[in-house]
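Hey, resending since the last one bounced:
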Amino acid sequence: MTYVITEPCIGVKDLSCIDVCPVDCIYGKDEDEQLYIDAEKCIDCAACEVVCPVTAIYFEDDVPEQWRSYIEKQRVYFEGMSDEERQHAFRPRSQRT
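The structure tokens again:
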């Protein structure tokens, strides 16, 4: 299981979740409508869930029914993403120039 970012993130993309993630598993690019959590890297610490200002982040089992499609949307986002593409995603504040 992992955490999932859902509909309230669309158009907001507040980067607080990226800043608190201890394993840098939250990604997004300028052209993306929202941020995404890499399930393979996520350690289920819940740090991101607590700081989300729009309550968009849920543990996978707790995603509200109306936003369950975001579980698959997140999986598809990372499917086939290269390491190079990940390097161009948003980074934690400490790694931004």
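Strands lie at 3-5, 26-27, 36-37, 57-59.

Sorry for the duplicate.
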